[in-house]
């Protein structure tokens, strides 16, 4: 697969805004290790190989185990994730698949047991941001380096 265009050079202003949003997301209340888990999961759901690869590498640099990373795609059937991580992964999937899920009340209730109101907003902003990156990378066929 070949990239369709370089969105950084095609629209520097738009990308400046995306980079600012990413910087903001990284400085909110959600811990970095959890941020990478949700970025990986959203990227998997969206079929974004570039972002899945990038955030898997970043998670490994932060000490995430390969075993847990392999299990992110099947987190519901794995005992590797704590309640907070499970709630974040469920929230990530529901928000990512918004048109299909309408973000069920049960998913919200589980997330609220683990996250404060402020953290819920921060978590949702993080999910929205990675979904935006995924849509850019998938639409313009950005692929990971070999």
TrEMBL record:
<dbReference type="GO" id="GO:0051920">
    <property type="term" value="F:peroxiredoxin activity"/>
</dbReference>
<dbReference type="InterPro" id="IPR029032">
    <property type="entry name" value="AhpD-like"/>
</dbReference>
<dbReference type="Pfam" id="PF02627">
    <property type="entry name" value="CMD"/>
</dbReference>
<dbReference type="InterPro" id="IPR003779">
    <property type="entry name" value="CMD-like"/>
</dbReference>
<protein>
    <recommendedName>
        <fullName>Carboxymuconolactone decarboxylase-like domain-containing protein</fullName>
    </recommendedName>
</protein>
<feature type="domain" description="Carboxymuconolactone decarboxylase-like">
    <location>
        <begin position="12"/>
        <end position="94"/>
    </location>
</feature>
<dbReference type="InterPro" id="IPR004675">
    <property type="entry name" value="AhpD_core"/>
</dbReference>
């Amino acid at each position: 697969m070949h990239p369709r265009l370089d969105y950084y050079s095609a629209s520097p202003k738009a990308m400046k805004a995306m980079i600012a949003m990413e910087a903001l997301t990284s400085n909110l209340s959600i811990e970095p290790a959890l941020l990478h888990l949700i970025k990986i999961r959203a990227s998997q759901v969206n079929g974004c190989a570039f972002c899945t690869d990038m955030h898997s590498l970043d998670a490994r640099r932060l000490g995430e185990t390969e075993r847990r990373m392999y299990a992110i795609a099947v987190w519901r059937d794995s005992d590797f994730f704590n309640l907070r991580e499970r709630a974040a992964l469920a929230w990530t999937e529901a928000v990512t698949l918004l048109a299909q899920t309408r973000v069920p009340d049960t998913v919200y209730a589980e997330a609220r047991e683990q996250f404060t109101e402020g953290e819920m907003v921060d978590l949702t902003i993080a999910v929205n941001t990675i979904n935006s990156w995924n849509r850019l990378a998938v639409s313009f066929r950005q692929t990971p380096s070999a």
